[in-house]
Fold these 2 entries.
Entry 1:
Amino acid sequence: CCLIPRPYYAAFENDMRLIAGITPFGVAQTNPAAGPTPYDLQVAHDAARKQGLNPKFLLLTNPNNPLGTIYSAATIKAAIDWARGHNMHIVVDEIYALSVHHVD
């Protein structure tokens, strides 16, 4: 199982289930504009476990797709620390990190 903050890129659902055989489990966020908190991650982790799933990694997209939110360094570090504390891997998808849009 993969924990992934909601909302997330719709194709992740298909790619994880059909191609990788992984069940994505959405993390409800207290404040989606700020990113997942350790509390949000823990609630999702516990809910996944209650459904018989075993979360193995956390996937963050930064900037978030579809929101476009850029997580702060503190948010990312807190997520990494939380995942390490649960012996989980963390994958950070930053494919759009260098995209720049000018208002001209």
Note: The mean pLDDT is 91.
Entry 2:
Amino acid sequence: LGIEPHHRVLELCAAPGSKTMQILDALHQGVSDSVAAEATSSGLLVANDYKEVRLNMVIERSRRAPAAPLLVTCADGRTFPSLNSGLLDETHGVGSGSLGFDRVLCDVPCSGDG
């Protein structure tokens, strides 16, 4: 996907979380410690799954990630709701409207489930 630390990524069908962890690693690429990672990563990962029970796996795995820029959501990926951004930054512009994404990953059916 060519994910860079400033990217905003939407991952649909995120559970069980293997790809979520890989994306979080990519958002922290080149950063060695968690304090520096928190300061330099301006990106965001929105990890979504349709089933709330499956999201528990994603949440537990993400607790091991350093300074994770992560938002976990539970919605039907076919009709994923728009997210409003209150952020202002040079890369993505004024955050008065819907949050846009630089990359979208949808692994259906999840290849990690066997």
Note: The mean pLDDT is 80.
